Amino acid sequence: MKKPVICVAGSANMDLVTTVQRMPMAGETIHGNAFQTYFGGKGANQAVMAAKLGGEVWMIAKIGEDTFGKDYMKNFTACGLNTSCVYTTKEASTGIAAITVQENGQNAIIVVGGANLSFSEEEIEKAAAAIRKADVLVCQNEINLNATLRFLQIARMYGVPTIFNPAPAEDFPDEIYRLCDYFCPNESEAAHIVGFPVKTIEDVKRAGKDFLSRGVKNVIITLGSKGSLLMSEGKTVLVETEKVTAVDTTGAGDAFIGTVAYFIASGIPVEEAMKKASHAAALSVQKRGAQKSFPTYAECGF
Ligand code: RIB
After folding, report:
1. To the nearest 5 percent, what fractions of the chain are helix, strand and coil?
2. Is 210 one of the catalytic residues?
3. pLDDT tens string 172-198
């Protein structure tokens, strides 16, 4: 069987992770329990998840010519990603994420984009050949927005289905929504964009309708331990997830999206892809780190 081809245009960050009993308050100093560095960044995480499942994954990314960048390039190769569209720069440092993880597994993240935000016009256009070959293109919002917009336009031009994870959320130009085959925010990203709280299932459905009215073809809103909701014209499906005890939720959304991308690229129905993605995400929260916690196809028991 042909391997599904997934192209991910997105961020690569070095995650600097501190574990704490509780978050510090403004102006307060507290003792942390432990410190670790992990390979992260929403784009790279989603790419690595799809590769762990067995996909042929093309990564479009930009890193600095510094120690983190050199280590990251080795990580991409070790994970089996195609790196012909991983660009480097001396002008900016590799992206980092300062992450604090509480004992209950919840996290808070500050991202400093660095090289991720410096895709040039030439680098963007060079990546068109990789996008054209893909069964699906996956984007997030941790690289320069003009690059994301162009990558989505290129995918649409070649008839390649698109998945956009609007994280971190901001007010996107109208065209972005029309270029999304699958628009995949979590509840807080959805709330930020629609401008009302997204807490109850009714709120989630209202947000979903809002995104459909903007021109998105399918909306998948992830709901943490409550699962995920699919909405498309005339269809609303809630996909529940298993209950697990989380030690670190960092990257769980990326495990979900990388898995959805792999299975959409494989041609299976989206609800089925979401069920499998929930399972991969549930396994990932039971280990620390982002990519490091992601299960392989065999570990998922698919
Ligand atoms: O989604 C988790 C990721 O968000 C982390 O790996 C961090 O790098 C930030 O991009």
Report:
1. 40, 25, 35
2. no
3. 999 999 999 999 999 999 999 999 999
